[in-house]
Design goal:
The chain is mostly helical. Helix content is 39%, strand content 7%. The strands form two sheets. Strands 3-4-5 form a three-stranded mixed sheet, with helices on one face. The longest helix has 20 residues. The protein is globular.
C-alpha cells in the first residue's frame, strides 16, 4: 500500500479556494513543512547564525531616543528615510520603454504645488501625541522615556543579532518569521538570506525597535485622531482587517515624514494582531468621500 507523503494534497488550492472553504493557509508554514522545506529552513538558520557571529554593527540612522523633547521632534520627523528595500523597476533595465505615468498623476504633478506652511507657523503639522498630552492634560510622559535596546546594545548602533531577534520574536515563533522570506523567494535559500539581511539592516537604520517602544506617543497627533487607518475585525481566514480611510489623508495637514513613521508603526503593530494568521493582514481601502486633496504624490 502506498503511503501518502507528508501533508500531501490532491490539488493545489488557490487563495480564493481557502476563502470559500474558510480554511487558513498552511502550505510552507510551521507544522506543515515538507522534508525539503525543513532542510531549506535548516540551511537558512545556519547562515543566519553564522552572520550573527561575524557581521559588523549596523548604524541607527534615525534614532527616536534623542527626539523626545519638543524642540527636536520636528527635525527628527524630517529625517526619516522610507526608501524601498528593493528598487522598483521602470522597464529600462531590460532596454524596454519606460512605462508612462497615469494621466491623472501626470496632470496633478504638472501643476505647481502650493507652498506648504512653515512648521513654525503651523505646529500641528508635526505635533506628536506626547506633545499634545503635555500641553493639555498632564506634565508626565505617556511612556517611559528611557529606551534600552535588546541585549543592552548602544543607542547609535545594533548588531545583526539584535536586529534579527527583535523582529523574529514579535509574533512568538522565529521560524514563522524566517519562513516568510523563504516563501517570498520561492524557497531559494541564498535569495531569502539576502532579503532577510537587508530587511534587518533597514529595520535597524529606521529604529523600528524604538518606534515600537515609544508607540503612539511620538506619532503625529492629528493623524492618530482622524482615523486614517485602524484594525476592526477579522476575515474568514482569521486575518486582521485594516481599514484605510483615504479621505483622511490630507497632505497639507501634516509633515510627509510624519505619515511615513505612522505607517511604520501600523505595520509593526499589525503583527501583534496577526499572530494566528502568521503575519498576514487584509487591507480595505475606503474611497468614500475621496477628493483631489487626498492625492498625495510624495507618498505614492
Amino acid at each position: 500500500m502506498n503511503t501518502p507523503t507528508e501533508h500531501d494534497t490532491t490539488a493545489v488550492k488557490t487563495l480564493l479556494d481557502h476563502y470559500r472553504l474558510g480554511e487558513p493557509l498552511t502550505s510552507g508554514r510551521v507544522g506543515w513543512l515538507t522534508n525539503d522545506q525543513k532542510e531549506k529552513l535548516r540551511q537558512l538558520w545556519a547562515m543566519l547564525l553564522a552572520e550573527m557571529e561575524t557581521s559588523e554593527p549596523v548604524p541607527v540612522l534615525h534614532s527616536l531616543s534623542h527626539s523626545s523633547s519638543d524642540d527636536t521632534q520636528a527635525e527628527d520627523l524630517s529625517s526619516l528615510s522610507f526608501e524601498p528595500l528593493v528598487p522598483i523597476s521602470n522597464g529600462n533595465e531590460a532596454g524596454g520603454p519606460k512605462k508612462p505615468s497615469p494621466w491623472w498623476l501626470t496632470a496633478w504633478a504638472s501643476k505647481p504645488a502650493p507652498t506648504p506652511p512653515s512648521e513654525k507657523d503651523d505646529p500641528l503639522r508635526t505635533e506628536t501625541v506626547q506633545q499634545r498630552h503635555r500641553s493639555t492634560r498632564a506634565k508626565e510622559d505617556l511612556v517611559p522615556t528611557t529606551f534600552v535596546p535588546i541585549f543592552k546594545e548602544p543607542l547609535h548602533s545594533r548588531s545583526f543579532r539584535s536586529g534579527f531577534w527583535q523582529a523574529a520574536t514579535q509574533i512568538g515563533d522565529p521560524d514563522s518569521w524566517v519562513l516568510r522570506f523563504l516563501r517570498a523567494r520561492s524557497w531559494d535559500v541564498a535569495k531569502a538570506f539576502d532579503m532577510l539581511k537587508r530587511t534587518v539592516t533597514w529595520r535597524v537604520g529606521q529604529a523600528i525597535d524604538e518606534i515600537s517602544f515609544f508607540g503612539e506617543s511620538l506619532l503625529h497627533n492629528a493623524t492618530m485622531e482622524n482615523g486614517l487607518a485602524f484594525a476592526c475585525t477579522e476575515d474568514k481566514l482569521g486575518n486582521p482587517v485594516y481599514v484605510i480611510r483615504v479621505r483622511a489623508n490630507v497632505a497639507r495637514q501634516r509633515n510627509i515624514q510624519a505619515i511615513k513613521r505612522f505607517l511604520c508603526w501600523q505595520i509593526e503593530t499589525s503583527q501583534l494582531l496577526a499572530t494566528r494568521s502568521d503575519g498576514k493582514v487584509t487591507m480595505l481601502f475606503d474611497f468614500s468621500g475621496f477628493s483631489r486633496e487626498n492625492i498625495d504624490v510624495k507618498l505614492v
